[in-house]
Amino acid sequence: xxxxxxxxxxxxxxxxxxxxxxxxxPAEIAADAIECYEAGATSVHFHGRDxxxxxxxxxxxxxxQIIRGIRSKAPDVLVHSTLGYVTHEAAExxxxxxxxxxxxxxxxPDIAPVDMATMNVDIYSSEKKAFITDDQVFYxxxxxxxxxxxxxxxxxxxxxxxxxxxxxTRTVQAFIEMGLIKGPAxxxxxxxxxxxxxxHPGNYKGLAAHLDFLPTNGPIEWIALVYPGxxxxxxxxxxxxxxxxxxxxxxxxxxxxxxxxRNADIVRHIVKLARDMGREIATPEEARAMLGIPQLLKAAxx
Length: 302
Ligand code: ZN
Hints:
The chain is α/β, with parallel strands linked by helices. It has a single domain, classed as Aldolase class I (TIM Barrel), CATH 3.20.20.70. The protein has helices at 26-39, 60-73, 96-102, 142-154, 166-177, 204-211, 232-241, 263-276, 284-291, 296-301, and strands at 6-9, 43-45, 78-80, 111-115, 119-120, 124-125, 130-131, 137-138, 158-163, 185-191, 220-226, 244-247. The two termini are 33 Å apart.
């Protein structure tokens, strides 16, 4: 069976009330990423955060510090950066920091996400029988999706196309047909729990509904995530079906693993599950070959 890519979602916008091990500052994120790499992770995904308050910090300098920190100790691990999440105005500017980072091979992310639809991303509370917010829109019109896909790839960064539902995957199929995606299309199948209703349910049926509609018109690799929520209810199905896995403290505190686990503890848990099922873990180099990502750093060093 093909090797499993493990992508760790280090922090997203998680706070520390349930698990204090969520990394926030650039130094904490870099140290946590290196720890995950040593535990077997293939790639690391992170959001810039304020080290004291945990507020979002999507500026160039924060990301440059994080990426340089990671590569000083783990030059191989795939760096999977972000564009930021809920935005209404000046959405074009969401990729400014990625394009600036990409100018220097030392800070160029390997992978950056394009979320394939505009969605309501309010959190519903079953306990309160009410929405906690009722105006949060993740704004991604089709014109911007094409623009992001083109600009990110032109900067030498691999796009990962996040699919919150089947219409997103159909849009990826159209992008493949239009010739917009270079190399295999890297598709993230998103499921959501914990009151976020925008994705498929984080269970076998939610995943199966995604898998029924994968693009058929070109080579693809798919990876599954549950945001927010635990990857565990779908992890073994993903491993058996030949997909890849993305998870971490950014999605869920994982207290059920015992104590207050660190991201690397969750990585070790999934590595064991995959090996028990007969699937080895992809090294970053093997993942680059699978996804069509050039060996940027080695090329730069030569
Ligand atoms: Zn993210």
